[in-house]
Amino acid sequence: MARRNEESGESAGVRVARDAAPDYAALLDSVRGIRWPARSAVRGGIPGAHTSRMRGTSAEFTEYRPYRQGDDIGRIDWKLFGRSDRAYIRLSNDRAILPTTIVLDASASMDFPVATHGKWNFATELAIGLAAVARSSADPVGLVIAGHGALRQLPPRTRQGVIHEMLRAVSETRPQGNEPLSPAITAAIRVSGRIVVIADFLGDADDMLSNAARAIVAGKEVHAVHIVAASELEPPRDMVLVADPEQPDVRRPLNGDGRDAYVKAYAAWRDKIAHDWSDAGISYSMVVAGRETPDHHIRRMAAPRGVSATA
To answer: How large is the C-alpha radius of gyration of the chain?
Structure first.
């Protein structure tokens, strides 16, 4: 569905592309202080910022339960025992980390529109911003880029320079080819409890969904961000010939009934993607590059369920 104008000029486009280059410093400043709580209790592990499914000895008391044979006697509330002559265990919610991996689509269709690289620039800003927000909660963050050739992987880490490593990786990447994204999701599942897929879903969407659904069944938290360009939603009236960036030999005219058929088919396809991914238990959102700032979308994603983010 991603299309590019085969007759677009370069002079004005170059100026626009320079103006639209991501300002990562401003982005990181705008998301500072945002917290991204887990959607549900995290399986116990290394102490962190998220509520754990394990019951432990943290200061966050939740309830009492009667002592059972085999319990650690050190967890008995002896003051309560002295008052009631009954042994009770104090239960509390431990806190845990949530390793987070961003899966970034770097196929050719993400480099659209050609003049501004709008989808790719927006996607990289989202990736860096979400990683910074997760990192601010002391969560390990990593990145998998699926572009031309082998996957580029940065495993989740908590060290200070991890965001700069991710910045360098996206800056060195140029979207090209038609690399499938499902292997990148598989790679992320192995190392993370939270996976964020940022893509235009124009490749192996069915295989991607199958892998993401398996992650949900395994207790992972999966977010899908569908990146589209405004000109994909409503192609300009002066665009008369289009080609699939990932299959340049596929060309078709875009005038008259052809344009209307394209708009209708693209809308139906987007609705199906949203329906299928949401039905699988995945947090799905679509964003039009350039119509919303990356930090605003990040606030919407990080907001607890039932809470709306403000601009």
So the answer is: 23
